[in-house]
Amino acid sequence: MPQPIILNLEPSLPKHSIAAILAGLNESALERLALDVIREQRRHLEHAQTLYEKLSTLEAKAPLDERTEEIRHDYRLALLMMRAHHQITSAVIDKLGRVPRLPEDETSH
């Protein structure tokens, strides 16, 4: 029987790398986590895509203004968050050893 993992979840502690957080999880727990991080990654992607489309429309219609600059800022932030979360998604999937199928993907075909 695996030893229970005791985590001190203080964000400033360097020993809490992604690998350390995932260590000791069984396949079921990893799969559940993978499903959630994939869903979250999709939300990040969708948000970035929405901002990109909004920015493209604004840039095509009007000269650069404060609203356009605000959307550009939001888009850059969305890209950064998506990129950062991609590393988490990749680490979880690598640890699991496969890409799980999301139940909602099964019903949409």
Q: Provide the structure class.
A: mainly alpha
Terminal Cα span = 40 Å
Helix content: 55-70%
Strand content: under 5%
Number of helical regions: 4
Q: What composes the largest sheet?
A: none
Morphology: elongated
In terms of per-residue confidence, which ranges show pLDDT below 50 for 5 or more consecutive residues?
none
Extended strand count: 0
Rg, nearest Å: 19 Å
Mean pLDDT over all positions: 87
In N-to-C order, the SSE pattern is HHHH
How does this model look, in words?
With 109 residues, the protein is an all-alpha fold. Helix content is 70%, strand content 0%. It is built from four helices and no strands. The chain has helices spanning 18-22, 27-61, 66-96, 103-107. The longest helix is centred in the middle third of the chain and has 35 residues, at 27-61.
What key phrases describe this protein's structure?
mainly alpha, single chain, 109 residues, 0% strand, elongated
Task: Note the topology.
Layout lengths: L17 H5 L4 H35 L4 H31 L6 H5 L2
Helix pairs in contact: 2-3
Short summary of the structure?
This protein has 4 helices and no strands.
